[in-house]
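Q: For a teaching handout, I want to show students what a protein-ligand complex looks like in token form. Below are the inputs, and the small molecule is nicotinamide-adenine-dinucleotide. Please produce the holo structure.
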Amino acid sequence: MELTGSSAIVTGGASGIGAAAARQLAAQGATVIVADLQADKGEALAAQISGVFAQVDVTSTEQIAAAVKAATEIAPLRAVVNSAGIGWAQRTIGRDGTLESAHSLEAFTKVIQINLIGTFDMVRQAATAMSQNDPDEDGCRGAIVNLASVAAFDGQIGQASYSASKGGIVGMTLPVARDLAAAGIRLNTVAPGLIDTPIYGEGEQAEAFKAKLGESVLFPKRLGRPDELASMVVECITNPYLNAEVIRVDGGIRMP
Ligand code: NAD
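A: Here is the structure, written as tokens, with nicotinamide-adenine-dinucleotide included.
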């Protein structure tokens, strides 16, 4: 799918995998709406890639609507990447990760609300806008990529909310892709392994934690780089025959 002359939205676009995807989509010719909570980082990136920053909390259906509207006013919205998410590591580093400390009902609900419901809300609203686009030669009007995680399959201690949220994203891939096919929209899910981004926090403790995590990867024995994920995200957007798939990009890691 050709992206020149199109707009694209990347939630969580200010950081990590989302920022790398925003750069790569811009390089493919899309005008990218960097939709994130973090204005400083988001505005700086948008300026670098000739995109637009939109202050979006994905738990706000109105803010998602505003971002979709802003995108369609620039150009037909043909690509959406749902990368906004919160992890588990920030809460479990230095803690025991038990149900009591890491998973109050409030914390569980928050993770589901951001990672799963926020993703679904953007899919829903973006697909409505995409369905108005002129189809390309395949009848395609747009493509959406959601970010899950290997934690959907291999959840660790303290990860109940995170794994549930990402399992939900995996679970909705096929049924939503089936719903959207009638409108000429493809939907795929990329499930990252352990990727070196600020999601693990910053500072000495986070660096030590990430180094230890790298040893658990099958090969190569390191964390993944955001660009290595973003290239798969872009492939899912641009490859006309890739649909309804959940793709692990994880160095072959299988958690014990
Ligand atoms: P990151 O922390 O670098 O980026 C996430 C971005 O999401 C941040 O810019 C943050 O401000 C934004 N965000 C958080 N809550 C938001 C909200 N309510 N509304 C809008 N934006 C919000 O993390 P990352 O590692 O790039 O993660 C991107 C996605 O990939 C996430 O969904 C994450 O769960 C998933 N993932 C990451 C890893 C990893 O190892 N880094 C592994 C598996 C899955």
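A: Two things your students might notice: The chain has one domain: 7-199+226-248. Residues 89-96 have pLDDT under 50 and may be disordered.
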